[in-house]
Amino acid sequence: MPKYAKETFLNKRTVHPSIRPEKPFQLGDTRIGIIDTEDRPLTSTGLQTYADVYIELFDENGRAVEGNYCIVQYEEIINGSSNDIQEIAIPGTKIIIGKQTLIEDTSEDNYYYYRLKVYPNVIENNGSYTPPGVCDTRINTVVIDKKESAPGRKDGQVTIVASSGAGDLQYSLDGINWQTSETFNNLAGGGYTVYCKDAAGCPASYYLTVDTVLSLLVSDPSVMLNIGNVSRWSAAFNPIVFTYQRRDLNVTAVLPANYGSQTSFKVNGALSTGNIMLTAKDKIYVNAGYYKGVYDVYYVNQATSEVWIDLPYTDSLNNTGFININKFRPYYEVLTQITYQDTLTGLMSTINCVHRPNTQGLIRADISNFLQSLLQAKDDMGADRPNSRDYNLGACYHVKYTEGWQDPSTGANVKSASIAIDTPYYVTYSARQLGDSYGGNMAAYVPFKQVDAPSKRARWLTDFAEPVYSAGYPFDIGFIYGDDLAGLNLYAEITALDVNRNPLGTPATTYLLNEDGSFLLQQDSSKLVIVRPPVTNKPFVTGLAQRIGVNRLHISQNFDVYARYFKLDLKYRDADDNEHQVMQTQIVRIDDAIDLQSVYLRWIGLNGAWNYYRFVYNQEITLDVQNAVILKKHVTDWANHDAIEDVISKSAGLKMKVIAEDLAIADIKGLQSLKYSPKVQMLINKNPVKWQTVVLNTATFAEYETRNGQAPFSVTFNLPALNIQTQ
Fold it and tell me: What is 250-269 written as a DSSP string?
């Protein structure tokens, strides 16, 4: 079967010309297609066209045919001048002569063109030709066409750029299964070794990493605890930061260049975008091996995806990393989208946040200000269930993020595919302090099914070491119902304790209550005893509704007269009926002060839940009248006129000072948050329960002396202003 040969130009690429730096000629460099052997700078007008130059074999019907090392003669013609006739043996159907060779340059001052003349008649190999003994198969680079867009999606794609004198290249990811296409798709993120072999069986291999786009996110507000527990609960009034690391191209190797006087970075992608090419003197940010910082580009090899900087090579144990190129991605930003359920409409709503990187490409997206808008310092929850989720003091949200930049060729805004984080995040109306464990994360208050020590169990959301419960008054204590507890039948266990904090087992007295919850009193204000039933050791057990979020456990039990405390435990039973405790035991003190002239306050504490306290005995009430506006009158009849001046407006209001004597320092520390709470309310009616918001006076308070161990506590607040007659 006769064979014929012809030239073919594949993978043509047209770009704007660029200034090429002086580059010493090194062994292995090819002069084919070099524009100016004196390395003169190119002009910035016109276009340059590059292509892969092949010689192909075909039969009389135009179909590809195997060469079997037949000999083909060809000439290279540059600017009309022919070079010497050369011969090459072709083992397969085609062979490459030049990789991304410059075939045309239309610059105004230096027109250039390259042509390949192939003699169509071939010289058959009748067994006299012996293939070369040295394999020249080489994988020049691997282009990451697409990263895996999210974990598990397996949609990554790579293209292998290889060359061989024997041609007919095949490619593989495992060295067993081969394909003729240089592109592999449907790849998961991770490391791969790609293999290549030519018609003579000469192999080559190359290691690469397909990134998962989620790696753009390097940290989030979550905290990893022991035995795999993760807390994604954050305090709204602390920074809530999602940190992203921009990575335009991954560095697969850091190599010495020009005998070590320069450093070369081999990357896993093209050093051009559209018609924009990376050129000398452009600035790039490098984070690979020893090199971290912004550098000027010294030389770019588009064919091998290498970029040089003019710094001596320094070896490092880790010669991988990334580079960022602002020329390719100007005005780079990350869009963080927050999705949440609007409590008013019940519909899903979104908040978009835009953040830009620093010079290292690091983006710290603090979204705490946006999340604060999901919460409110108010209470519209009912107390008709054992526990209720407080939608005002806690919220759930989801996050997805997108890279964005401006296309340098068109100026259009470009956005990558959005990546959604599968797990939800939570925010509470809390403010953590310096020195608190886990910083702004609420990990110390998040319960889990299992912990590695009883001390690691979650705390209750109270500012008191021991909250105070007053019988007949509304009371609840906050806790986080974490998503790790979903599906469990949680229950609260309440056990009455005596003055020595032992479970009660002695007779107790129960008092009959009026409709409004107050004690039934005799005329001398003493309590009327109706019955004295026996007291059981069995604790109160209350099943809880499954509501993930900030919950409030409502307590309204009437305890025995001998009870001075009660303890709270949150538990569940597993499939084998084994009991597990998920919260730390909370001791609550029962207030036994007489219910006379009491002022009952509640407020939102630093831990993001309501606190309660009853002030008894005596309060100071002050009437404050001010801002009087007086109108002077002109008097003409002094004998009969009623006044020289009239008051046309004034303001008036009541102030109340509540006092508690001889409090322990632990109680005073719990009460301190009352003075800087964003919401303080006073109970004005028990049945139905009705609260009134009051405003505390701002001042500097003398709290206590640490040596004494106890001190009085007082605070003054304004009652709602009086509505008086004004003109």
Answer: EEEEEEEETTTTEEEEEESS
